[in-house]
């Protein structure tokens, strides 16, 4: 059985001869895999390790049936998956992406057992022994498993059980789950959250001496001054006070403020050594800040220079399509890790808009289909991906009813497309600018239930709806009675 970590094993799986991609997701450990892309571009899917383990157990529980179907035949395998897979999400995936799921299982069986026979993408490398070893291996890789954490810690050369501190920026189109990703990482952890805006200053972020009203001896009030810590100083004190606890400083909308100026002297601290601690320590230029920090530490004499400890991470979100963005210089950016979050409509919420077309038709258009057609249209104009509609651009709560969904479309999506994305021209590729020359007119037309979209956009929406209905019919027809 394989002994290396799951990310390394999946990397080896990706090197096997196959038209379908495979990769490992470090955050919320799961496997991302694709179809062949033969019908117009690859599509990607996600399977958690827990779901994979459940699937392997289902195969083991129905081993005789799978041993009689090791050579891939799409209809037979789809029916077998439908009959035996107990995970609802994996079962649903198997009905429309049968071969990609088959290929993923096959690759894991092959590499988890370190087989040396020729790999065949359409023939399961399955036996009672291989499935048992694969199950044992995946069980050892489930997140939060002590051995899993130890193996990662050893690879990063840090103490077992510790999390290596880092500076990381999550970026992507509006609504791709940047804040959600950070929230998942820091959930139930010690965290301090702040939001940058164009007027954010060093004193807001780090802290400053500010006036306070105190009660005098005779009951009168007098003004005094004390250091008011900002989110950075609060997080730093927390991390220094308890080195056994990992602390997160979360900055939303990092580039809506002049980040380098807001960080000021802290800029130098962002260089970290292999343990995650600041590589360079600096003198504290503000004596009031130094005094405040010392007053809140158990061993104040040990703190004389400013630095980021190895248990303080800084996580940030950034949306480069924001009109209020401030450019970040290279020296500042090189001190951060970056993770791009792609648009993935398999994670989008469910809800329909009710639209009116020029021919009088009033179809109910799912949010996913509407957004994908919008993105395809914008992409044809070479609009950068970070200005497209992300899958979480609208929340589930904004799609609960047709009325709420339409209000969201009018008050949020249409205004974003009109005023932000297409403000410099080409509005006519999506909107009928003959009947609506301003956004006010467009909003009024939509509120009155009148057509607002261009003929081409309506045609593309209609085609997408027809294709979606065909897929739904195929899936429904293939479900066992």
The residue fraction in helices comes out at 40-55%
Regions with little confidence, pLDDT below 50 for 5+ residues: 152-161
Strand order of the largest sheet: 5-8-11-4-12
- Describe the sheet with the most strands: 5 strands, parallel
Q: Which secondary-structure class do the elements indicate? A: alpha/beta
Q: Estimate the global geometry from the Cα principal axes.
A: flat
Rg from Cα = 27 Å
Q: Kindly, what is the distance between the CA atoms of the first and last residues, rounded to a whole number of angstroms?
A: 40 Å
Strand fraction: 5-15%
- The count of strands amounts to 14
Mean pLDDT: 86
Number of helices: 18
Short description:
By secondary structure, the protein is an alpha/beta fold. It has 18 helices and 14 strands. It is flat.
């Amino acid at each position: 059985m394989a002994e290396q970590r799951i990310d390394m094993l999946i990397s080896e799986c990706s090197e096997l001869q196959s038209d379908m991609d495979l990769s490992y997701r470090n955050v919320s450990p799961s496997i991302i895999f694709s179809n062949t892309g033969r019908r117009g571009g690859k599509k990607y899917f996600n399977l958690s390790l827990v779901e994979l383990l459940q699937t392997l157990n289902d195969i083991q529980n129905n081993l005789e049936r799978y041993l009689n179907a090791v050579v891939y035949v799409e209809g037979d395998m789809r029916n077998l998956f439908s009959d035996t897979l107990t995970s609802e999400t994996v079962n649903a995936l198997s009905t429309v992406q049968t071969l990609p799921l088959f290929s993923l299982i096959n690759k894991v069986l092959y590499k988890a057992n370190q087989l040396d026979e020729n790999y065949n993408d359409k023939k399961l490398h399955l036996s009672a022994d291989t499935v048992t070893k694969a199950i044992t291996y995946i069980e050892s890789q489930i997140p939060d498993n002590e051995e899993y954490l130890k193996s990662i810690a050893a690879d990063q050369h840090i103490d077992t059980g510790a999390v290596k501190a880092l500076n990381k920026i999550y970026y992507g189109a509006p609504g791709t789950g940047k804040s959600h990703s950070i929230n998942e990482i820091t959930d139930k952890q010690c965290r301090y959250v702040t939001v940058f805006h164009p007027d954010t200053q060093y004193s807001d972020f780090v802290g400053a001496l500010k006036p306070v009203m105190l009660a005098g001896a005779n009951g009168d009030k007098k003004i005094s001054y004390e250091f008011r810590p900002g989110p950075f100083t609060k997080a730093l004190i927390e991390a220094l006070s308890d080195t056994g606890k990992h602390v997160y400083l979360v900055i939303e909308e990092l580039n809506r403020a002049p980040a380098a100026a807001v960080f000021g002297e802290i800029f130098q601290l962002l260089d970290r050594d292999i343990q995650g601690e600041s590589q360079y320590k600096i003198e504290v230029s503000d004596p009031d800040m130094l005094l405040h920090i010392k007053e809140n530490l158990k061993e104040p004499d040990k703190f004389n220079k400013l630095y980021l400890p190895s248990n303080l991470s800084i996580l940030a979100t950034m949306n480069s399509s924001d009109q209020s963005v401030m450019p970040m210089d290279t020296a500042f950016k090189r001190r951060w890790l970056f993770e791009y979050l792609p648009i993935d409509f398999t994670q989008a919420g469910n809800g329909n808009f009710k639209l009116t077309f020029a021919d009088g038709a009033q179809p109910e258009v799912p949010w996913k289909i509407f957004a994908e057609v919008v993105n395809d249209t914008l992409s044809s104009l070479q609009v950068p991906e970070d200005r497209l509609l992300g899958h979480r651009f609208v929340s589930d709560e904004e799609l609960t009813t047709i009325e709420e969904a339409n209000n969201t479309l009018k008050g949020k999506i249409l205004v974003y497309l009109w005023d932000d994305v297409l403000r410099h021209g080409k509005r006519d590729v999506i909107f009928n600018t003959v009947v609506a020359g301003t956004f006010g007119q467009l909003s009024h037309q939509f509120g009155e239930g009148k057509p607002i979209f261009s003929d081409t956009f309506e045609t593309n929406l209609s085609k997408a709806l027809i294709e979606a209905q065909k897929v739904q019919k195929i899936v429904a027809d293939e479900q066992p009675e």
